[in-house]
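SAMPLE LOG
Freezer: B-3
Tube label: C17
Construct: single chain, 449 aa
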Amino acid sequence: MRPDSRSFWDISVKIGLLCGAVAMVSACSMSIIPEGAARSLPPQQSSQQDGEWVTGDRADVPPSRPAYQNGAPARFQPVDPAQLVKIGEDSSRATGAGVALGPDISTLNLGGAKAASALQSFRTSCSSLVRREDNSGLTNGADWQLSCDAAQRWPDQDAARFFASYFETVQIGDGKAFATGYFEPQINGSRVRNQNYQMPIYRRPDNLLDVDLGLFSEALKDKRIRGKIDGTKLVPFEDRAQIDDGALAGQGLELAWAHDYIDLFFLQIQGSGRLALPDGSIMRIGYAGQNGQDYTGIGKLMRERGLLADGKTNMQGIVEWLRAHPQEGMQIMRENKSYVFFRELTGPGPLGAMGHPVVARTSVAADRMFVPLGAPVFLDMAHDIADGLWVAQDTGGAIKGANRFDTFWGAGEQAAQIAGGMSSSGQALLFLPKGTVVRLVAARQRSGQ
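STRUCTURE (predicted):
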């Protein structure tokens, strides 16, 4: 999970190292929200999913499906707010935001290759999906069992039919989506400290505690804090400035050493990455925890203070300014009190909030209060490269609210460029097991709401 956004994160401050700093979410847990002009891949790599969405009303299932019209380019239309049904009063989760049936999946252009990749990721997540609590309130683990069983034997080349057979589309709230991007960065590092590698990359301290407040009060359900014990009190853990000044020195927590503080700072924002070691080998590190302090996007601070010139509000411009103003830059970075801890990854990775590897161009970070982790998500964005089917396998500290997503683009220069420029609005649909909306509405009627 990303640190502040992601389990890959909570760091998921996640949007892309390139531009992420500008706005700010670790699918693991935090991601940075990037700012920049829309970019697209070369034609042969485009993931644009334009087509004609045509469907009819489903008067037999409340609320009814909206009507869709032919058009080019075709975009599915959001459900009329009057058709939304609130299943509960808690607006901090999907059931309180309102749900409605969307278009039939057979009318959506899922794309063969993208649907196949989504099926593979859905299949991977199923072992966790059927047993974990759905914080959104939309489903139970057992609801997914039928589709998970079928996914294990379903051929990838027929993935579109799989999704049409087992799922219905559901709009949460107004369906208006906002998507950013994150990727897996690579920086220079070393397993041992020497004159060229002086910046510690810390393991998670043993005294860092995660507290589930919902265990103490139903009113605090799904609320968590991090801190440490001081005598008989739970107190905040040290912030970035205190850690930079040596609060953790001498405790044997150094996992590795980075060559450059700025590079390490942005790797923390992504919540996972690769260290290029002096011998030419690669060490992969993943999110292991975060200090519990609030994340602050320095790109936003720098824009508000007029420090970034026009055309310099992307990642490169931010880094350029930080290097040109080392003292002021260090103070600005320290204003982000969030600090991420790492562990070495020796298997597939990076890992998302579900504990499974996130997949480039397929995995997306979402708010678990509005999206069941492991559920497929269909995006129709102004930034066409993000269009199509994704699977929610990660979270992020900055990825909060209904229809807020952080798309994962993998590793390498192209991934960094796409993630850094990903900042797009559009519409979103969840894929939930068939019959979910009928069940939710029936439960609401039985409760007399």
